[in-house]
């Protein structure tokens, strides 16, 4: 349990990926819990019970048993496709932060890695990782994923992710400052080392490169120019590398969503980073609990931006994935399915849950609901429509869920 943060803060995301119950943004919880207290963390409902009664402990023990039983029942889905009742098949991939997580993802039935957060290679150490060290880390992931695709996101530092040996200047608003691709384009030495490593490692599997925090066409052309230069250097050196690595971008800034038609002509795929897209579109700091109520994934503006991105991508014959937290929210998954998303990338521990939801619905129905939701005037109206149409079905499908909230 934490005093600060929101559902999409990185502490909450990492807790979910490791299946650790968590409740965040409680303001003064650390003052209320005395050392040695017995505490129940209900991540599903966002509750913390301090020194619970005997009856409360018994109730939660029963809930835990139901949750374990539910997870066991999902195991039969591992080898089955993520396909709707009427035949629409989507890809279901995993988000990872370290090579060690790949085995869990594969075991849970992931069809690839939809987001490899490489910044964690740079953390908890006293120096930057060398090119060879990065090659080995990426190679390990690629080999374990076999022929399935591995989308390697380039360094995404800044915002709420920092490393001690690479000081980032203090900023009034770090989420809108010197971070991600902006940092990489200024520190080209760090960027080139990582791109070289990705190209070299991709010989051992199906690697793809994804750039974060892209705001316009100029940035894509600049990074692609750098990538082309690196390939030429590797050829001259005689260093083996993968020539035809696909490149894509995170759509997480409103400007990128608005000009998706232009960006789609420059890349091979899009991945919707819904956490930041919502944060920037609605001007909501996602680690500030005071404005957490304004963080509305089903806000009409968000739905329209996502709809535009998907339509623009498909017109250019490129695919669209979602790697943000909307991809693991049961209600949002069905709406995104209806809007035409091609890939969902979630924490390994959420894969089977999301697969069950997809396999228990009809794509045609989700399309019809998505069309109606795009006409909604408020977040409340959109959410109410979705819940009226889908929540009862989700309740029947999902039993014993236990997310960080």
UniProtKB/TrEMBL annotation:
Residue ranges occupied by any PEP-utilising enzyme C-terminal domain in the UniProt entry: 72-361
Reaction it catalyzes: L-histidyl-[protein] + phosphoenolpyruvate = N(pros)-phospho-L-histidyl-[protein] + pyruvate
Co-factor requirement: Mg(2+)
Protein location: Cytoplasm
Pfam families registered for this protein in UniProt: PEP-utilizers (PF00391), PEP-utilizers_C (PF02896)
A single MF term (Gene Ontology): phosphoenolpyruvate-protein phosphotransferase activity
Any one of the GO CC terms: cytoplasm
EC number: 2.7.3.9
Keywords: Cytoplasm, Kinase, Magnesium, Metal-binding, Phosphotransferase system, Pyruvate, Sugar transport, Transferase, Transport
One example of a Gene Ontology biological process annotation: phosphoenolpyruvate-dependent sugar phosphotransferase system
KW Transferase (keyword) present: yes
Main location: cytoplasm
Family: Belongs to the PEP-utilizing enzyme family.
UniProt cross-references to PANTHER family, sorted A to Z: PHOSPHOENOLPYRUVATE-PROTEIN PHOSPHOTRANSFERASE (PTHR46244:SF3)
Function, in words: General (non sugar-specific) component of the phosphoenolpyruvate-dependent sugar phosphotransferase system (sugar PTS). This major carbohydrate active-transport system catalyzes the phosphorylation of incoming sugar substrates concomitantly with their translocation across the cell membrane. Enzyme I transfers the phosphoryl group from phosphoenolpyruvate (PEP) to the phosphoryl carrier protein (HPr).
Name of protein: phosphoenolpyruvate--protein phosphotransferase
Annotated source species: Aerophobetes bacterium
């Amino acid at each position: 349990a934490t005093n600060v943060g929101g559902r999409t803060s990185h502490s909450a995301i990492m807790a979910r990926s490791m299946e650790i119950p968590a409740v965040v943004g409680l303001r003064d919880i650390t003052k209320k819990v005395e050392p040695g207290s017995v505490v129940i963390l209900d991540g599903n409902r966002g509750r913390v019970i301090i020194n619970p009664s005997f009856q409360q402990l018994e109730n939660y023990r029963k809930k835990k048993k139901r949750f374990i039983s539910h997870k066991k029942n999902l195991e039969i889905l591992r080898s089955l496709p993520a396909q709707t009742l009427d035949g629409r098949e989507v890809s279901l991939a995993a988000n990872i932060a370290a090579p060690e997580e790949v085995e869990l993802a594969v075991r849970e039935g992931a069809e690839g890695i939809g987001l490899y957060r490489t910044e964690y290679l740079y953390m908890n150490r006293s120096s930057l990782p060398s090119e060879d060290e990065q090659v080995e880390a990426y190679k390990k992931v690629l080999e374990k994923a076999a022929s399935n695709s591995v989308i390697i996101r380039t360094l995404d530092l800044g915002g709420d992710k920092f490393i001690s040996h690479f000081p980032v200047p203090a900023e009034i608003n770090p989420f809108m400052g010197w971070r991600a691709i902006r940092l990489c384009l200024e520190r080209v030495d760090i960027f080139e080392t990582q791109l070289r490593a990705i190209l070299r490692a991709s010989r051992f599997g199906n690697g793809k490169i994804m750039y974060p925090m892209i705001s316009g066409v100029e940035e894509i052309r600049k990074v692609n120019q750098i990538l082309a230069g690196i390939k030429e250097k590797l050829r001259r050196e005689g260093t083996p590398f993968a020539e035809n690595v696909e490149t894509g971008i995170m759509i997480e800034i409103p400007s990128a969503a608005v000009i998706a038609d232009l960006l789609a002509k420059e890349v091979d795929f899009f991945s919707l980073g819904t956490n930041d897209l919502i944060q920037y579109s609605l001007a909501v700091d996602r680690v500030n609990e005071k404005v957490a109520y304004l963080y509305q994934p089903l806000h009409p503006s968000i739905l329209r931006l996502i709809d535009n991105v998907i339509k623009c991508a498909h017109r250019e014959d490129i695919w669209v994935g979602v790697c943000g937290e909307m991809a693991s929210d049961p209600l949002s998954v069905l709406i995104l399915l209806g809007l035409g998303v091609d890939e969902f990338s979630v924490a390994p521990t959420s894969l089977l849950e999301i697969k069950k939801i997809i396999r228990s619905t009809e794509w045609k129905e989700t399309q019809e609901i998505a069309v109606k939701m795009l006409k909604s005037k408020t977040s409340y109206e959109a959410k109410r429509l979705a819940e009226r149409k889908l929540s009862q079905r989700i309740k029947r499908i999902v039993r014993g869920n236990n997310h960080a909230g």
